[in-house]
From TrEMBL:
Source species of the chain: Cellulomonas soli
UniProt-recorded name of the protein: Tryptophan--tRNA ligase
Catalytic activities: tRNA(Trp) + L-tryptophan + ATP = L-tryptophyl-tRNA(Trp) + AMP + diphosphate + H(+)
Gene assigned in the entry: trpS
An example Gene Ontology molecular-function term: tryptophan-tRNA ligase activity
Coiled coil: none
The entry's keywords: Aminoacyl-tRNA synthetase, ATP-binding, Cytoplasm, Ligase, Nucleotide-binding, Protein biosynthesis
Amino acid sequence: QQRIFSGMQPTSDSLQLGNYLGALTHWVALQEEHDALYCVVDLHALTVNPDPAVLRERTRRTAAQYLAAGVDPSRSTLFVQSHVPEHAELAWVLSCHTGFGEAGRMTQFKDKSARHGSEGTTVGLFTYPVLMAADILLYDTNLVPVGEDQRQHLELSRDLAQRLNARFGKDTVVVPEVHIVKETAKIYDLQDPTAKMSKSAESPNGLIELLDDPKVVAKRIRSAVTDADREIRFDPQAKPGVSNLLTIFSALSGRSVASLEQDYEGKGYGDLKKDLAEVVVGFLTPFQARVHDYLADPASLDAVLADGAEKARTIAGVTLDRIYDRSGLLPRR
Ligand code: AQP
């Protein structure tokens, strides 16, 4: 069986619809046929210096959202990154194989550091993609399901894997492949349909958070930016706002974009938005109820995570020992 690994940062109380459509729904589908590990990457969230109590709460909330989306702990290994110390240990080794200029070329770092300013930008934000490579390589991962924004980081993981294999022997680590589903690779902000929807968006108005009040979500969809034209047609270049709404509609309803275009021929943007709001709220309402059930029983949630960490460590330990050994570190006795 092919091995899958992916994770999300607990950087917000709620995941957003882009996280769900770009990654989480694919995780759920892939767990059927693969050996999957899904992680709440809390060490990554430290890069933006969160409040400690808030981070702890968000870590549980993120795990609860994975479960509510359908990640099944009897099929997949679900765990918290900091519970498996090998992630941080391998990140150090990989950072010694990463060029300074190479890390500096990461566009997410350039964007985020521009937002935080040079004093607000931590070294952790700079080395973030190296920790991500460690997350992936530790599990001899074959496939990494993510959204389009992670493509460049995945390329770095592949480069690092190839570098390790060239230096220490070709079976040192598995070179991972990226798994990006074209249709939902990038969900856009409702108010700025040229920017990706993001947990840390400056304004919440373009964002659909999975745990938002459904009334607020419906209102945000009704106020989504479209264009002056009246035609409901999928054309991301000319009509980014309408195309984004069609993508979301199609992904959540299972109806193809072509059939939606046909059904809405001659109708107005208001009709499309009203129906889409219903579809989104219809999805969110039971989802939120499931999240609240998981959060109402933190002891069981923590037990699932502890079990996942134990399983993950048995794989991670073997990989780390192999890489330490090939790097020339003296074995501990
Ligand atoms: N808008 C999006 N469309 C499709 N996929 C998306 N992803 C994120 N936004 C979209 C995918 O969701 C996963 C989340 O990864 P992350 O938590 O490491 O953070 P991120 O990629 O930086 O996502 P956010 O929501 O923008 O978080 P913040 O604001 O914390 O940086 C990844 O698979 C990502 O591709």
